[in-house]
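RECORD TYPE: inverse folding
INPUT: structure tokens
STRUCTURE:
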């Protein structure tokens, strides 16, 4: 049992992912929280929803990795769920997905 617990704890430490969804510009800096994610080796995906998100902040949240930035309109948000799942859960890193707003 102890061996199994160690195995699962090791898996948890390997696959830490955060998905940040926003429909607007942050009122404070996103740089410090994004840095904390990187320091803790947490892969962060940033999802901009609608028209009022700030692309620069999305890139900052995603540690500058365009492959970890996704955008969608409110009506077609459901269409990117599969993409988020593939990238976050399987580590897939295809070119950035951009759905027409």
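DESIGNED SEQUENCE:
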């Amino acid at each position: 049992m102890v061996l199994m617990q160690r195995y699962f704890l090791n898996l948890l430490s390997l696959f830490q992912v955060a998905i940040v969804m926003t429909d607007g510009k942050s009122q404070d800096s996103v740089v410090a929280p994004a840095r904390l994610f990187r320091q803790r080796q947490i892969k962060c995906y940033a999802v901009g929803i609608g028209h009022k998100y700030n692309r620069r902040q999305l890139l900052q949240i995603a540690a500058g990795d365009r492959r970890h930035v996704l955008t969608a309109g409110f009506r077609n948000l459901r269409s990117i769920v599969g993409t988020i799942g593939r990238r976050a859960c399987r580590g897939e890193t295809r070119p950035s997905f951009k759905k027409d707003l």
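NOTES: Residues 16-90 form a domain with the Rossmann fold fold (CATH 3.40.50.410).
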